[in-house]
Amino acid sequence: MTVAIIVNLDAVLHDRRMTLTELADRIGIALANLSILKTGKARAIRFSTLEAICEALECQPGDLLEFSPEGEP
């Protein structure tokens, strides 16, 4: 059984009509690092980064992250 955390950053960005580049500029994080998070390849995220993303996107952590026991969205 695969356990996974699904990252819904792309969907939240789309809902907010914001690009990844704009988000990176707003929160001061490298575009490459946000891209790794967006594609689900990140192995961890700092709470300070999560807080900055949530503040910029006016969302909750649960809007960005989802637990999927089967590893599928």
Q: How would you summarize what this structure contains?
A:
It contains 5 helices and 2 strands, in the order βαααααβ. With 73 residues, the protein is mainly α. The chain has a two-stranded antiparallel sheet.
Give the overall silhouette.
globular
β content, as a range?
5-15%
Mean pLDDT level: 91
- Work out the helix count: 5
Ends apart, CA distance between termini: 15 Å
For the biggest sheet, the summary is:
2 strands, antiparallel
Helical amount among residues, as a percent range?
Answer: 40-55%
**Which parts are unreliable, with pLDDT below 50 for 5 consecutive residues or more?**
none
- Summing up helix and strand content along with how strands pair, one would put the structural category as mainly alpha
Alpha carbon gyration radius: 12 Å
Number of strands: 2
**How would you write the strand order of the largest sheet?**
1-2
| Helix/strand order, N-terminal first | EHHHHHE
Give a structural overview.
With 73 residues, the protein is mainly alpha-helical. It contains five helices and two strands, in the order βαααααβ. The chain has helices spanning 9-16, 20-27, 31-38, 47-57, 61-64; strands at residues 4-7, 65-68. A two-stranded antiparallel sheet has the order 1-2.
Features:
73 residues; mainly alpha; two-stranded antiparallel sheet; 5 helices; 2 strands; globular
